[in-house]
Amino acid sequence: MSEIPADLKYLETHQWVRVSDDGTATVGVTDYAQEQLGDVVYIGLPEVGDSVTGGEEAGVAESVKSASDVFSPVTGEVIEVNEALEEEPEKVNEDPYGEGWLFRVKLVDKGELDGLMDAAAYGDLLADG
Q: Which residues contact 61 (CB under 8 A, 6 or more apart)?
């Protein structure tokens, strides 16, 4: 069973978001997503200063067996990208909720989080297959 941290919000497309007290949001792919991808060999991320829109494509994750779009769970301005992934994309496989994070966003609307799944709902999604 995939790990599903309770303090995160989730998209149906298997991305997560963690919101900090300062209104910034960290985005990554879930444990389930990295398992499905297999060995990640490349991560394409937005640029700092780019705008991302909740539910829309913001990057790409490529593995030895497939490529998958990465969607942003939230809308805002990209304020940081995980540059370590350029040299070590495998961090997404090794630690998807920690060192394998993808990018950080300055949130436009915290209310947008209400439309995302909590851990229980995401777990149900995975269980339903």
A: 29, 33, 37, 40, 42, 43, 44, 67, 68, 70, 92
